[in-house]
Fold:
Amino acid sequence: MVIGRLFSREGKPGLHYGYIIISIGTIIVVGSLGFARFGYTMILPVMQRSLELSSTEMGLLATGNLTGYLIFSLLGGILASRYGPKVVITCSLFVVALAMVGTGFVQGFALAFVMRLITGLGSGGSNVPMMGLASSWFSPRKRGMATGLMSGGSGIGLVLVGIILPRVFGHYGEFGWRVSWYLLGGLVLLIAILAYRFLINRPSQLGLPLVGGEMEPEGSGKASSLQWSLVFGSRTIWHMAVIYFLFGFSYIIYSTFFASFLVDERGMLETTAGGLWALIGGLSIFSGLLWGMFSDHFGRRAGFVAIFTLQFISFLIFSRTFDLSGYLISSILFGLTAWSIPGVMAASVGDHLGSRLAPAGLGLVTLIFGIGQALGPAIAGYLADLTTSFSLAFLIAAFGALLGAVVSLFLKLQQEPGPVNVKTPYSQ
Structure:
């Protein structure tokens, strides 16, 4: 409890340790998503030329990564609910680091697929429990802000890879993509050490209340097997899973083939494409915080609908324009919303299930989300080879986002936060 005495209890001066949790969580998201997944977007064109892979094969590599994420998103959430998030997150980050370094040594498609699959396993085992952990430190009226702020880690990762990796390519030439994987893997290894040192599973371990003043509910430790029906039997959870599926399917097409489309199909310079990718990253750092706070005030459903609508416009513009200004507008709209749905989703699941089952519930919806992510790149890569253009794939992504807005209109949460009626997740 020595650490607990260094931080404030609600109503006393000082920094609540919950803010340390989301700060470390943001860095973890930088590694598990920003580097492990979205670093691939910038590496893809150079790696494809070096290994002489088709667009279908590169799409399948992305699918391998996302399949791994899909597999361990549910398992990681269940393990975190039973054994505590810290050990699951830390071990998973070590797996991510080793697999990313291993990707730099591959000589062909088969081993590259295995390495991307393992990277995805580690990403799911670190990111999903981290979202659940962050949710469990904050009261409902601050939960969207917290998980949204942490989602900005993906944007920080995008900024870093968009600025650094093109320079690595230029300095190391044909070996630049390999050096990039070594560099990113080494950084994730450092993040794993940081997670082991600073993560704490629950506020009660430090004798602290939740951020927001409420005390942690009784029995917020390990989940009982008798409670799984609250996760798997909830229509609301499955409704959120469909929403998350549509987000995963649509956004991953845009984010995976963004650079390849601009560089290989539109003839844009790698530095220019990297600049647009960095712009998306810069704007997206605060997208989760912005829309998390929006959902705290206006409700989760309104947040989902607004985000999907803006992403629909972004993807539609990107699929139809041939002008730099069009790509710029599309990048800005996507950047402003990029990582907002994961934060709002984590808050929604926490609202509905409470801190004890939040990691397991988030694991379930992320499993369905992962199916959408796995299908997106494979379908997009196949269509690109079939039509010699990614335009149709981006148009399909736009339709997915539009459908997500429509489905979100019918979401009904028992505990909707808002300016007047704020309930606890245990009042149901």
